[in-house]
Queue: 2 jobs
Job 1
Amino acid sequence: MKPTITTQPLVNGDRLNQNIARLATIGALPNGGVKRIAYSHEDLQARNLVQQWMREIEMEVRIDAAGNIIGKYPGKHAAAPALATGSHIDTVPCGGHYDGAYGVLAGLEAVQVLKEHQLQLNRSVEVIVFTDEEGSMIGSKAISGRVINDPGYYRRPDGTDIYSCLKAIGGNWDSLATARRSSQDIAAFVELHVEQGPILESMNKQIGVVEGIVGQRRFNITVKGSANHAGTTPMSMRHDALVAAARVILAVNKIGNTPGQQVATVGKMQVLPNAANVVPGWVEMSLDIRDLSSLHIDSLLEQLRTYLEEIAVATNTQIRLNPCLHNEPALAEPQIQSAIARCCKKLNLSYTYLPSRASHDAQEMAQVTDMGMIFVPSEMGVSHDASEYTSPEQCVRGANVLLQTLIELDSELSK
Ligand SMILES: [Zn+2]
């Protein structure tokens, strides 16, 4: 008698990669990139195609008030909180084929494979296409209940208002509150995404198990010196704001380079009066600092404040640190992280744990329910560019991990 071979369902790699390529034709740019800005004609076309694909695999499709497309593959226990996955299909003005689209299409592929294997899970599986990830993240923010209650805030850069944008995609600003979800109807959310960074490639790992999405804080740093004649003011009598600012940049770089996974950047600077023959009197610059631990960011900022005081004394200037953005880290649920790691082992894939330093809809979903994220490598770490590339093999590996993770979580949650 032959031994029974238990095969785990695997995704259809050709179909997945064909769908990625097909979706990338909508909004295709001559340089190979994709332009599919949220609410644009191309976005609408892509949204229609994805809905058509959802219906072809007999998912129940609805659009919530925030315009999120929600496809559902019903489980055995219709009333039990669902397992959800998904991502976005809007792009930056010149994006690639994979950012967002990959996660949505891998979710659909996972559902199609479940159906083909006549595998109905205990829980329903939802694939969510979030509205405007690259801009306002209004889709996932409506689900988490964190939309700012001011339509003016969501006015588009081209001047169009949010009422008409949402209406065009089947949503409705006035009933946005109805889009809100809770852990009562979503038991877990897992987003599959390209890494958009160089870590996996540099470590030669096939899968990234995301530990969480880093917290981000932004500050305006102002340096007040005094402007004066660049010829007649002796070096010893200057209050040179730009010299102080240069030291501030080095101090920021120094805290960025202390042990840890943090990143710290001065990316923007304005000098006044910005003239060749005047000692600079005023500098305004940005500080962006990110880490998975809020406490660690606090201690780095404490260190930076000490440096700034020293620099101010040494340069006869006044330096101020004014907060302008504070996003808390969104941690991935340890139970989901270990489910993803187990699936990697089962599939014989190499993996590592890493933080996500880019924003994702998953960070909003972490407000709603247990969240996890799976990364696949991005060639040269490039994203938000036409040259963004993840190999077909890698796309298939990530999709298989997603499929297995959904199955794993379904059985784990049913225990
Ligand atoms: Zn994305």
Note: Confidence is low (pLDDT under 50) at residues 1-5.
Job 2
Amino acid sequence: MTAPSRLDRAVGAVLGSAAGDALGAPYEFGPAGQLSARGEEMRGGGGWDPGEATDDTQMAVLIAESLLEHDGLELPDVFARFQRWAAGHPKDIGLQTEDVLTSGEPWDLAAALHFQINARAAGNGSLMRAATPAVYFAAAGREATMDAARRIAALTHGDPAAWEGTAILHELVRVALDGADPLTALPAALDAVHPDHRERYGRVLAPDWHPGLATEFNGAVWPCLGSAVWALRTTTGFAEAVRAAVDLGGDTDTVAAVTGALAGARYGQGAVPAPWTAALHVPLPGFGERVLDADDLRALAQRLAVAGSR
Ligand SMILES: [Mg+2]
């Protein structure tokens, strides 16, 4: 088998994240092992149709379309798209994300003000939507990739811990698109993390860490990223990694979306099982009746990869 091309990996990241999101959606907030116990995949449940992607992928698509239409990162536009989407009553939206997007505060203050009042804002909500900007910014190199990640995260998450985790994920996807093993890039990625946050990420990304050691629910940014990296490290293929992520229980759609982005970039789009992508679809509340399918996601990922490398 020949190694996947850079474009195959870019599509793998975007499609893989969406597939993980949809695979995990029916089991959100449930116990561990539900996917294996059910023995059927992409059959829906918990209010989700088979193959239906949730807020993770919906927000990733919104970021992608803003990047492409503006030929770069136009933060007020991304925020406005998020607001329009939130007003369209998505089936699922993170509590904190909803608070920030509906606060009526301007794009550059809303998340910071929320963090000032609530102090805790390190949910995984900025991690879950990272596949598309990670593909777009990859060609710009590590520093630009991590900087963009932080700025997009800061639109909804005022806690710098969320920015740093999102920056690490972007960087790991960037390395994988280059054809390298993202696990070997962890030390360099950690070096580029803000010193205040380096130790804590170092702990959850260490080779001997496993989800059983998590000190928070995996809806928080640290165990979510740690679990995704663990899933990649302890498996040998895309489907196996994403299944392991869903079977952890908890915030199954998001842990699987993050795992899917990493594993998709690592193994390429050909590794994403066809039965998972056949029913895959992404509604976009607030944007009319638009629903993207797997081919739309493939095309979107290709446009991101090409536009980002110009
Ligand atoms: Mg979700």
Note: The chain has a mean pLDDT of 96.
